[in-house]
Structure formats: structure tokens, C-alpha cells
Design goal:
This protein is mainly β. It contains nine helices and 54 strands. A hairpin with a 2-residue loop joins strand 32 and strand 33.
Amino acid sequence: MLLLGPLFVLAQDATREIKGTVTDNNGGPLQGVSVLVKGKSTGTATNNAGMYTVKAANGDVLVISYVGFLTQEITVGASANFNVSLKPITNENTDVVVVGYGRSTKRTVSSAITSIKPEDLNRGAIGDVGQLLQGKVPGLNITASGDPNRPAAVILRGHSTVNSPGGPFYVIDGIPGADINAVAPDDIASMDILKDASATAIYGNRASNGVIMVTTKKGKKGKTQAAYNGYVGFENVSSSLDLMDAAQLRAYSQKNNYTPNANDDKGANTDWMKAIQKSSAVSHNHNISFSGGTDKSMYSASLNYLKKDGIILQSDLERVVGRLSVEHHALNDKLIFGLNMMSSNSKASNVPLQNMVFQQAVKYNPMSPVYNDNGTFFENFNNPSYFNPVSIIKNAVDDTKYGSLQGNFTIEAKLPFNLTFNNNLAYQRGTWLHGEYYNSYYSQNYSTGSFYTNGDPGGGRSLRNFFANGLAYRGYYQSSSKTLESYLTWDKKFGLHKLKAVLGYSWQKNTNNEGLQTSQTNFVNDYTGYNNLGLGNYQTVNGFAVDYGGSVYEETNFISDFFRLNYDFNEKILVQASVRRDGSSVFGKNKEWGYFPAASVAYRLSEESFIKNLNIFNDLKLRVSYGETGNAFGLGAYNAQRLYNKSGTYYSNGVFAASFRSTQGSNPDLQWEVTATKNIGIDFGILKGKISGSVDLYEKTTTNMVFPYSVAQSIDPSGFLWLNVGEIRNRGIEFMVNINAITRRDFSWNTTLNLASNQNRIMDLKGPEQYGVNADSTYYTQIDGPGTTGSRLQLLAVGGPLGQFYSFQYMGKDANGNSQFLKRDKTLTTNPSNISDYHYLGSPHPTLMFGWSNTFRYKNLDLNFFIRGVSGNKIFNATRADLSYVVTAGQTNISPYAADDKKTDARNNNFSSRYVEDGSYIRFDNATLGYRVNIKNEHISNLRFYATVNNLFVITNYKGIDPEINQGGASLGVDYNSFYPKTRTILLGVSVGF
């Protein structure tokens, strides 16, 4: 006992409890601070009161770290209590920035990059990750509707081209071209937006519209930590379209000596927009995550469930996202293995024939009821193309199940001579399972030869036939992408000089539209819908042809080599140069390869004594860059090749054989679109980082834009070719400032403002001379409304912006009350001619975009609110034009804005300047009030309750449902019967850490 006693005492001393509190430099407690025992797997995190308890022995070293603060190490002595005050990192430019094939810091980057942390993202019931960045990044124009199944349009620094979808290229945890919807908002650790070509050119063929780098949360050394974040949201329509009610419509009819017939006036007073809406929509989200690790291995995993109801009947989104991240260190940290996997499975229930539903809802007579007295749907077939919108929804289903699986396996090996080798093997797969069913009600009531679907602006419309006893569509398609990226990094410091070089190779193979579609009709009953096509019998239905879909299987390949060199002189002079050589199978055989160089220089003036002596700037950096990127987005595998299709039959040797004709000519010289960007910027930090921000001026020019063109058959028998045509330019300025206005122990206030202005202009529309393409303008965006057949809304013209409005100039009424317009020769007419009498009516591009965020903290309370808006843009309100057609007023509904128009004025709804409106708005986007509960519990590390309101109010003069009109595509800025209502959301949530 005498011999073993001292050993027993020593064993007790080796693992005793060490307690303490971690605070900031003002004495405020810090929650979630990592407290690890160096070299061991023991660790913990501080609770809401900043307190921690960890087991350690004398001589052990506690490593105490927290984001934004300097890490401290404390050696354990005789005391059992160690209180620590962490010092903040005074220069925010030491923050890590994720760039292409590597990392840097804000202090040492020479490119235009904006970094967004999780706490800066928008709050609310958000199903589309793109909306998280709305108004947060200067130059990033994001527009979204209230439709839970419609992704936001994301445009960075203006439209780069007419052909491309226009969205940025996403890289998630090193997976290039990843599906952004496979990431749950709660899993995002940071988002870095690469803007200028010196930052994006390393991604070459995929970077002309900007690059957004997304980093998800990773595991850390220490004990396993778990967290839950959940909310429930209640949504209501925030604004409604202004329509006449029954009394107003009767009064208008009486004023114009018109008596609605008995089929139109049933004595009802129906608000048809409310009839197709739910009284309210409920959304809820749940995210569970856990992470931890040892000295050798770290892991992080999460599971997210989202159910977001749409405000329109039968619309909703249900999504499950799973994520796993594992990292293992071997050979004394010389070798690091990484595995990232994300899986997303969604079910989107869409509004059947959604655009048609909106068109019918706004035009259907309010004097008509939704249901007959016997409970059946009211229909009035005396009016052509006139259908009950509620019955359209409730007698059909439109569902899409889509899944996304993406993952990558990475290897990082530290080699001799300051070399590091990285290998990234990524795989992505997307699946799309779609089903539609239109029951026997459609077959019995809507197969009249006048049921037209209503497309998006510029999409036209098509006649639908629902045949007999139900109609079903079923389709399954799959896409996949395999990527291999290998690169070698050399990082060496020579005194005050530092060199870093990256040399790499990239290979990618994509397959799209692998699958099939079919259709069926004449079902035994409606119960199985699209789930059992075998119960139908189309063979007995005259005129029915199976719809196999229009999707064509495609396979594309990309091969790239890239090189980047960074030079750093004492973090004072920073130089970066890169070049990427890209090859793509989507271009002509003669032009498959493109070369994309970029260079940037930064000079940190704050390192000069004459700036330091001012005692104002803690950071002042001047940046200049130029670079080129290519574009292969929006191009299919066969754009450069000759295509054939069936073209009837011909008689040969006593039989009729199928004939084929060329539908597209080959172009072996079809080449890369190239976007060149010039950028000059200044990053600044004032008063020890209390005020920081940046200013950027840029010019972005795209040449060799890829267009589909009709050509003379003497040039090519198909009459159709894809050609490189024209040039488009964007010029703009961006400004961002962050102010830590108040920093006290119990109270703080931080405010951030960003402003951006962009000017878009088409510089050239000429194509190759041998194809006879020498136009300086072309009209487009046709909408088939009553009395507007054959008219156009927008014009591509040299010297003007993409999407500029060109139509009639409205000049009021003549003596007879008829609408009159300005002819090209400046005279007035009531019968203008399409095209020849068109005038410039405005641009859909905003001249200013802004976002203003404020965060307040008082003890355990925190408040954040965000306001954003745009100004200077025009919207073509084609919905109001359509609703102003007074000729059928009394049979159909009209807008109150047409109340003073005579019923005999047949051209009052002609697309004209009358329906061009100011699209400026200021939106109170979101506000969150939270309360952090002081928890002294060994099982719960933090507990926070919060409430959020979205879309509290909008200040605007726009007469439509909402001024946030889609800015994507070529037909931007047109509001036409397809705008899903915005909602106002009140959300209650809780966050718990374990």
C-alpha cells in the first residue's frame, strides 16, 4: 500500500477537471469556443456563459480557438481554473478566401472577390440557395418569384451573352459544376464570389458568368458536437393583382350600354385569384448535424428536411438533403485523404398548367361562381378559350421527383522541395422522374380545340388535346458528370519574397438526357393517374400519337490544362498570372480549343510609411486585373453538327419509305464565346478595421456570341445554322462598406451597405460574311394576347441594351375615345403597323442595386434586419395590357386601370408605352429577433430562440403583383400572367447545441 499509494495519487492528478471562462476583450462571454488538449482527442466547447470543463493533467497544453480571434495556448499547472480573454483579429483581411485550386487570404488576394459568412446570409423559409445571397453581394442581381419550385435567376455583373443561361458556375467543396440545391443552408460555412477574370479564369470554359465557391462545415478535433436547428413558417400573400370585382364590372358594362348575358352574370362575386390560393401556407425545416474528430481523423455529417408549401393550390416542395464529410491525416500529416458526399432528393408538386391557370384566374368573370349548386365545377363554354381555373388545378396533377448525388474523393500529399500534390476525383448524378395526369374531366370538357397552354414571355403557346378518359405523361431522365482534376503546387519563400505556382490538368465527361418519355390515354378509371400506364388503351383513340418527348441524348467532353503563378513581396506587392487551355467537344472540329489568360497586380499602399503616418488606414490596397474566360454553357453536344429529322414519306419500288431532311447545318468553325474583363479596385480598412470595404470598376466584353440563325438554303439546305455572332459589353461600378459602429460589452451595432450599377450594351450583331449574317437588329419576344397577334416587345440592336423594349408609343385618346399612337413619321394614328411604327420604350436593366444590413446585439438579444432594392429599370406589364382588353369586358374581367376606356376601343391593350412602368422598389426583405438563453448544463452547450419575418413591405409604384420580375434570359423584365404571388412569412425557430 505504501508503494501503490503515491501512484494512485499521481493517477488522480493526471486526469483532473479544468474549468474556466472564455471572454472577448470587452469581458463578454464567448459561446462555442473550442478548448482542446493538444496532442490528445480530449476537448470541449464553451456554453452560452462562455464556461468550459475539460479533463487534463499538469503539463498539458490547452489550445483555445475561435473564429475571428487569435488562438491561445495555456499550459496546465497546479490551478484548476483558467479564465481566458481572447483578442480579436484586428485586420479582417487575414480571413481565408477559397479560390480556384487553392486558398488565400483577403490580405493577399489581387482579384475582385466577395466573401459571405453564414451569419450574413438571408434568413427565412428559403428553399433555393440562390435567394440566400439576394442583395448581399454588389453586382449580383438575383430575382425570385414566390413559386417554391422555380429557381432564382442569378446574374453577375450583367448579362454576358444572349445564348447562355447566365448563372454563375458553382464549386462546392471542390466539386466543379455542382448542384447548388444539394446543399442545405445550415451546412454552409462560407461562400466566396469570384467576380473578375483574374479570379475566374483558372476555371476557363465554365467561368464567364462568375464563380461561386461554396464551402460546407467540417469536423474539428475534439469531442463529438451535435446541433439542431428547426423552424416553422406561416405564409400569406403579401400583395394581389388589382382586378375588378362583380360590382365594378357590372358598373362598367352599364356605363358602356352593355348587358352581360345570363351565362356570364350568375349573381356571384368571386375573387378568382383567392379561389386558386390557399388561405395560408405552412413551411418547416429541420437540420440535425454532428461533428468531431481526433488528431488523425475529422468528420461532419448532417441531415436536412424541408417542407415548403406554395401559396397556390397543389403546389409545394419537399426535400431531404444528406451530407457527409470525412478527412483523415496520415504519415505525420504528410498525406491527407478527404471524402465529401451530398445527396438531395426532392418532390416538387407543381400547379398543373400553371401559366394557363394564372391567365384564366385574372380574366375569369367575377360574376360567375366556382361551383354550381350541385357541387360540380361551373363552366361557361360559350366563350372560347375560357375555362374555370380551379377545375384546371383540381382535375390534374403535375409532379416531379428529382435527385442529386454528388461527391468527391481528394488526396493531398506534401512532397519534398515545397511541393504539394492534389488529386480530386468527383462524380455527379442527377435524376428526373416526371408525371402528369389530366383526368376524364379534361377529356369530357376541355378537348374543344381551343385549349391553349400559355408559355413564359417569348415562349409562345400551343394547342392541347386531352383525348379520351384521361391523359398521362411519364418520363425519366438522368444526367451524370465525371471529373478528374490533378494539380501540383509549389510554395516557397525567399526572405521577403514568396512564390506560389500551380500546374494542373482537368478532364470532365458529361452525359445528359439519358432516359425516355411516353404518354397514354383512354384509362379504365382516374384512380391510378400516371402511375400505371398499362391501364390505358391509346390504340382505340383516333388521332392519338404517343409522345416520346423531345429530349435527345448528349455526351460532351472537356479537357483542360492550367497554370497559375503568384508572387508576393512582403504582402505589399502582389502579382498573379494564369493561363488555361480548354478543349470542348461542343464546338466545331476546327475550333475545339481555346486559350484563356489572366493577370492581376495589387499594391498595398498601407505598407508605405507616408500612409502609415496618416494613422487613418490600417489597410489600403489597389488592384488592377485583366483576363479572359470562355463559355460553353447553353450549348448542346450537336450545335456544330449536321442534324436530320423525318420528313414524310416517298414512293420507291412499290412501297412508301420514310424520308429525311437536314434540319441543321454543320459549322466546323463554331468557336468559343470569349468574355474579357478589365477591373480596377480598392480595398480599404479605416480606424483599426472599424470601417472596411471595397470599390470596383469593371468592363466586361463578350465576343463571338453563339446564336442560332436562319440562312438562305443556297448557303445550307437546312436553312439553319449555329454561328458566332456579335459582341456585348457590360460596364459597372460596385461599392461595399462595413462599419462596426458600436462595440461595447453589452451592446454592439454592425452595418453593411453595398451598391452596384451596371450598363449593358450590344456592340455588334454581325456574323461570318460567308453566311450572309449582317444584321444590326432583330425583334423578338412575341406574346399572343387578344388583339396583339404578331406583335413584338423587345429588340436586339447595336448600341442598345439586351432586352430593350420596342413597341408602339401611346398618345392617349382621339375625339371618339379610341387609343392613338405615334407613327414613325411623328403623326398620330389609331391603326399603327407592327415593326414600322415601333419606338424605343425603355430598358429592363436597373441603374442601381443596393442592399443594407444591420445587426444589433444587446446582452442575450440580437436583432438583424435587411433592406434591398433596385431603381432605374422598366417593366413591361403585359399582364395589365392583357387585362385592359375591354372588347370582351362583361364576358371576361378587366383591370380597374381600364375603367375609363370605352368598350369600343379595340386597340386600348396594344403593347405600347402605356404598359411600360417604373420597376424601382425598396423591399424590407427580412428581420430576425433572437434570444440566447444562458445555459449551465453539461449536455446542452447553447440554446437560442428566434423569430423572423420575410417580405414585410415593398415600396413601389409598380401596378403588378410584385416588381421583382425575372431578370434571367433574353426576355427579361416582361411580366406576363406567369408571376407567382409573393408571400409574407412569419417564422419561429430554435437552435440547440449539444
